[in-house]
Amino acid sequence: MKPTLSIIGAGRVGCVLGRQFHQDRIFTVCDILNRTMDSSLAACQFIAAGTATDAFAQLRPADIYMIAVPDDQIRACSMKLIDTGRIQPSTLVFHCSGALTAAELGLNANAASLHPMRSFADPAQVAATFQKTIFSIEGDATATGPLAEALKRSGAEVVAIQSDHKPLYHAAAVFASNYLVTLMDAALITFEAAGISGDLARRLAEPMAQETFNNIFRLGPQRALTGPIARGDVQTVLNHEDALKKWNPELAILYRELANATRAMKSRL
Ligand SMILES: NC(=O)c1ccc[n+]([C@@H]2O[C@H](COP(=O)([O-])OP(=O)(O)OC[C@H]3O[C@@H](n4cnc5c(N)ncnc54)[C@H](OP(=O)(O)O)[C@@H]3O)[C@@H](O)[C@H]2O)c1
Asked: Is the CB–ligand 1 distance for residue 151 below 6 Å?
């Protein structure tokens, strides 16, 4: 018989994992608990399985609990599972945070963290390409072993991460995803400050960004770097800083920090 899985926090990540485990017949999805009943019902619909609830006291015993709530709620939800007697000696519990370790769950055994290195801005898109997902996993071997096996059966790749490396690992992920968004937004609003419409700004930025992005992974950061710092055009960079300072002093600071980081990167090459 398949192990049963209940989900505490079926939002973007919880819904995608729940649906995948259900579709691939890895686990039987049991209960789905969000803060509101409407949200739990919507999650059941996305996953196409599970019973919606909004109360820990209504959770039925399950073999595995996935806690996919925001990071600052993980500890409280784990405590509620303990307080309501849901954790038996053989129960597995995992969370999905990239920044926190399994220790956040406050359990004595069978705890893991399992982090998908994907951006879940569009959950349906992640679900459609789930097999491309790489998960990092850490925690008790009694939990990481079966969970890694389940993920591999769903076609994902699983890599082990050392618990004490998680903060740096997650900082890297934030550079690779979140701050890329910040940078692109800076580019778009700077185009607009130069009198270019929002639509044209996106059409100008997209091929530049896509080409650079592809070059980073095709050629490596060293060969992907072009522009005034790569060429040594010092005055051009100073002119940019002057223009930015007059229009948006905060962006001027960001520009200067990035210029410094880019020079440091160039000197490492
Ligand atoms: N988003 C990403 O790209 C991404 C990528 C990798 C890992 N993660 C990690 O995955 C976890 C979940 O992130 P997410 O982006 O999926 O979050 P999310 O979309 O905001 O979903 C969070 C879910 O948790 C529920 N929830 C919040 N507090 C709760 C509580 N106290 N009790 C029960 N349910 C609660 C919410 O219910 P309501 O709908 O009722 O409010 C919601 O369904 C986090 O640890 C995050 O670090 C996220």
From this structure: no
